[in-house]
Specification:
Blueprint: H1 39-49, H2 57-72, H3 90-98, H4 120-132, H5 156-161, H6 176-182, E1 185-186, H7 197-204, H8 218-230, H9 234-246, E2 253-254, E3 277-281, H10 288-293, H11 295-298, E4 308-317, H12 323-345, E5 362-368, E6 372-382, E7 388-399, H13 404-434
Parallel strand pairs: 1-7, 4-5
Antiparallel strand pairs: 2-3, 3-4, 5-6, 6-7
Length: 511
């Protein structure tokens, strides 16, 4: 006798009318930045500035917040004269109550919920609320019944919205891209390419000998695939898989640093950018006067030792990460980098700030744990009204886990992009330093190989470049390895003879 297997009910698909923008954990934001005085003010300005509202859970929570604020506003109390109030004898009121009271036929569509229909969690909430209520004492039936005014029970949905209403909008929200577009920051605008688009394509496709089959073998590629498969979180992806893609280089870089020092890119309703990885210049490369004048545009972090003037960014996500969030983050990062370079190019220059060369000098990259690597450029162009517009263009997409050859092609383009971004950054810094006439001694020649802090350190191997002789490179080496510190004997004269305990003169009185 065979038993029929029970059919497993199919899982219901989530409702698609509400965008699933709350499945990703949203980071908390602790402080309010000017020009806003409160989180409520920042939220109001952000939602009112959107040209198009989408039906999302955040939009519904914002509506609940505004309805609650409107209901809690105190209304002016106007006392009514007692002479205008009708006075009914107590017998008439009792007769009116015996006949059923007021007519409630106009309450159509009201659904009465019995106690057995409530969820256990809702029952516990109601019971705790009833226990906290002040007791109501009823008098005799013939006396007038007086009770304190009832307060509505706590709204359970409102309690959850209180935790998210005090947050600025981030790339994890579906309306983040719409907000950027309202301020002239566009994602994937293929109709508006930069004027140096062909030059960038040619520069990025130059071969790199360090990724040749003799140096990056098939076994090394298999090791990378295994490492990428074991990276189950965003942090592991950036520390293992992405570190292999970035390779070993002497480019000054950092990551996971909030850009809390930069001026708002829109109206201040967005969170501070926090790229997972970015390349920039060392602070000593740029003149101190320029750093002070352009601080809110080129110095991203309050910690001044971090790279400044970043123009290469990278964002990563784990297996469960959203590709849409990656694209929004890349667009936000690239716009901040392009704005900083434009401020430096026009600093004390004959070229006005409203003139844009429409050249791309900023690159952003995204890497997902599924093996997809994408590159974008960002450039500024004038709009019809003369205001700046930020355009993001896709350079390409590659799957680095398909084969060794595709890995070598994609990673070679990625490393060429880092080198190209540094070349653009150093060129702009050199031109800005040369325009400082009041402090010529502080101008730094980036092309010299002297003892300047802007020159490359001899303790770090030279960066991988197609135009220079390459050094053997570890394909699984992490980016920016720690440089061993040299031991220095402070306060000791090198010319003075060292103390030798064996040559110590004998003490007096000793045989």
């Amino acid at each position: 006798m065979h038993s029929n297997p029970q059919k497993v009910p199919a899982k219901k698909r989530p409702h698609e009318s509400l965008e699933d923008d709350t499945s990703i954990e949203e980071p908390p934001w602790k402080r309010v930045k000017p020009p806003f005085n409160s989180w409520e003010e920042a939220q109001t300005v952000y939602w009112d500035s959107l040209s198009k509202l989408s039906l999302t859970r955040r939009a519904l929570r914002e509506l609940d917040r505004r309805n609650k604020a409107a209901a809690s506003e105190p209304t002016a109390y106007r006392p009514t004269a007692h002479s205008t109030l009708p006075k009914y004898p107590s017998n008439d009121l009792k007769r009116f109550a015996r006949h059923g009271g007021p007519d409630l036929s106009d309450l159509i569509g009201v659904r009465l919920v019995s106690l057995h229909q409530l969820n256990p969690a809702d029952m516990r909430q109601c019971n705790s609320y009833m226990e906290r209520r002040p007791s109501v004492r009823f008098s005799a039936p013939h006396d007038s019944i007086e009770s304190p005014p009832r307060t509505p029970p706590p709204d359970f949905a409102e309690r959850s919205s209180q935790n998210t209403s005090h947050r600025k909008s981030s790339a994890y929200h579906g309306d983040f891209g719409q907000h950027l577009a309202d301020y002239g920051i566009y994602m994937i605008d293929d109709e508006k390419e930069p004027t140096n688009w062909d030059d960038i394509q040619e520069r990025l496709r130059q071969p790199r000998p360090s990724l040749s089959p003799s140096k990056f073998t098939v076994q090394a590629f298999k090791d990378f695939k295994k490492t990428n498969m074991e990276a189950t979180t965003e942090t592991k992806v950036m520390r293992s898989s992405f570190a292999t893609i970035a390779g070993r280089s002497d480019i000054y870089s950092s990551g996971d640093v909030p850009f809390g020092n930069l001026a708002p890119l829109t109206n201040g309703a967005l969170v501070d950018a926090k790229p997972d990885f970015f390349d920039g210049a060392r602070p000593a490369q740029l003149d101190a006067q320029i750093r002070a004048d352009l601080d809110p545009y080129i110095v991203p972090s309050k910690a001044k030792q971090n790279p400044l003037l970043p123009n290469f960014f990278a964002e990563g996500k784990g297996p469960n990460g959203s590709s849409a969030v990656l694209q929004r983050q890349a667009c936000y990062d690239g716009a901040l980098g392009a704005r900083g370079l434009h401020e430096l190019k026009t600093y004390r220059s004959e070229q006005p700030k409203t003139t844009y060369d429409e050249k791309a000098d900023t690159i952003t990259a995204t890497y997902h744990a599924d093996g997809s690597l994408k590159l974008y450029t960002t450039h500024i162009a004038p709009s019809a009204s003369g205001k700046p517009e930020y355009h993001m263009n896709a350079l390409g997409r590659w799957y680095v886990i398909n084969s060794r050859d595709e890995f070598a092609t994609a990673v070679g383009i990625f490393r060429n992009a880092r080198d190209w971004a540094r070349e653009q950054r150093d060129e702009i810094i050199t031109a800005a330093n040369s325009r400082i006439s009041d402090a010529p001694a502080q101008a730094i020649n980036l092309g010299s190989s002297g003892n300047s802090t802007a020159s490359r350190s001899t303790d770090v191997p030279p960066h991988d470049s197609a135009t220079s002789a390459e050094q053997p490179e570890d394909p699984l080496a992490v980016a920016n390895p720690p440089v061993p510190r040299k031991r220095v004997n402070r306060g000791v004269d090198k010319k003075a003879p060292r103390f030798d305990p064996a040559r110590r003169p004998p003490k007096k009185g000793s045989g």
